[in-house]
Amino acid sequence: MTLLAPIPALIAACVGVPVLLVLYFLKLRRTSVRVGSTMLWSRAARDLEVNIPWRWPRASWMLILQLLGLLCLCVALGRPALNMPGAGAGRMVILIDRSASMSAVDIPGDGGELRSRLDAAKSRALELIDSAWASDMDEVAVGSFAGSASILTSWTHDRATLREQVEGITPTDQPGSLRSAMDVLALLAPDATGEGGEGARVATAYVLSDGGFIGGEAPGVPGGVDLRFLRVGPGAGDAGVSNQGIVSVSTRRDADDPLSVRATARVVSNAPGEVVRTLRATIDGRDVGSVVVRVPGASERRTKESASASDSPTPAPPLGGGVSERAIAALGGGVSEVVVNLTVRDRGGGVLVLELGGGDALASDDRVQLVLDGAALPRVVLVGPGEDGSSADAFVRSFLLVASAEPLEVIGPGEMERRLSVRDGFAGVDLVVLDRVEPSRWPAVATLSLGAGGPGVVLKRGVDDRRTRVVSWRRELPVLRDVDLSAIELVGAGRLEVGDGATVLAEGVDGSLMVALTTGAVRRVVSAVDLSRTGWGSDVGFVVFMSNALDWLTLKGQGRAGRWTTTSQVVRVLADAGTAQVGLRGPVDVPGVGTRWFAVPAVEVGGEGQPVVVPMGVPERVGVYEVVGARVGESPVCVNLLDAVESGLETRQTLTVGARGVGIARGEGSTPREVWPWFVLAAAVLLSAEWLVFAVRGRG
Q1: Do 461 and 492 meet the contact criterion of CB atoms below 8 Å apart?
Q2: Residues 421, 451: one domain?
Q3: Are residues 122 and 201 in the same domain?
Q4: Residues 78-103 pLDDT 10s
Q5: 3-state DSSP call for residue 616?
Q6: Which of 373, 353, 362, 369 is nearest to 290 (CA)?
Q7: Which of 317, 366, 369, 377 could share a disulfide with 638, CB 3.0–4.6 Å?
Q8: How far apart are CA 218 and CA 215, in angstroms?
Q9: Burial track 171-193 (b if 16+ CB lie within 10 A, e otherwise)
Q10: pLDDT tens sequence across 328-374
Q11: CB neighbour burial string for 666-678, b if at least 16 within 10 angstroms, e if fewer
């Protein structure tokens, strides 16, 4: 038995019991009695002792009955209650957690199969509803919460409606927020406690959850609410299904090799021992790389941390994947983590997916997807022989027509010198390609020179009819990666004479054929190969060389390359001015998912013609979403979980609400039933018995 209001009971006992005893201390029992013998004077002497202040009263049945009756009344003021199976009187609120961790499949079912925590929570909620239906519970309200909360039913005693709403609760991939649950209770509390004149009542609120929240983030429990925590999930020390999840990711294109995308992922594990998984990367469904991930167990953390200072990167496999493994500080509850690096090669971009192979308790954190931007196209100016540059090599012109971000600009040597003589003559240009044209000075932007020298680089011409081949080249450098120069026949090739600071890329019989120069942040490549005197222009290796050179010279791949959002952030897209609404459909891999439409906000004054930002809410599930009716070229929206607390799947013993902790409810399903009327009845019976004793003694 518990007291729902112990303070009033304690105050009443502290006041009532001393007052009763004081009355016995000071009460006089003198009566006029005619006696026939002096033997009765001894009893009269005892009665006189009552006049002595603070004399301990002698025990009597009347005192005992009065004390018992007074104590029963004091206990009744404390509103005693018994924890009975099922629901008791009053109102009941059922709040079901449907955050990402509640989708973990680690609860044994009746048939031995595993079911999700959310399914287990819904089953227990149905049991509470059935017990309320069978008892004198007034009304019940049902709500659910994850990142935000919602009231599914108002106060009702309709059993069918309550069961239907509970069974219809769907899982989400959002992090849980206990604050949102307390906000719902704050809305229901005034109605539940009867402030409208029905008298003060306590609403019993059950939170069915695994307790996986950030501690202390919720405000206090609203007044008039008796909060009960029913834990769902394995308890401390129970052997549950282990889980590994990706909790953070970043992608960058390599500054030296923009075709290389470096992806870094952080993987956590709650398994006690080491777990080996495979991280697989795909772009638009194409396999682009994989790497083996070894996540240390909780018992291995300290050993790994002490050795982390001497760790060296694992040699990269052919696809560029490698693991830089280091166990970092535990996230709590025996969770450890590892950092994984994976390098893939890509130019065009698309949807990059990183996925952990194999199964575990939670599927939504095994996969992250992001929009991978393609390598940006540079703005190029081609300088060719002739007055207007029209004599530029056809192979060079054809390649640059496709590789340039804007219509290719072709100029002659005269226009080139004019621009070199003025400040910012090549402003806005990313790359200048010189085809057999030697400038008086280098442009202030990246430069690729073919068949000519320049300042600091002297081209020594060779014998016109002499045929030679490339002797060696630096295959490991980004400019010549995947380029085969062994089959190229050079006619009349010379050599390049350069000073210190130049990097030789390729060498011929007579000397350097290709060099790289770096002046500050500006890069240049100079080649002695005259395309008009070789067959290199028609070879596929020339296309690869030009592609590598453009990427390395313009540095267009440097910086962050991926875009995504999470299930705790609002999705925002751009819509053209004048668009009425835009839609968000997805996740696209889930069949039967419709499109949610959002109205485009009105354009502010002076903002006509500008794109409008449209907020589209916080998505509930991870995956790739399709944007409908937005700006032309608007890319898909990739949504991920990326939450270490949810991936840890930790179950708590208490909920931290405000400044206090709410422990797991005793009986896990029992409801306090108030029994104060029985104590009032007992007090009435005891006082009646005391009156009878007094009457009998008075007659004697």
Answers
A1: yes
A2: yes
A3: yes
A4: 878 776 555 445 688 999 999 999 99
A5: coil
A6: 353
A7: 369
A8: 8
A9: bbbbbbbbbbbbbbbeebbebbb
A10: 333 445 678 899 999 988 877 889 999 999 889 999 999 999 998 77
A11: eeebbbbbbbbee
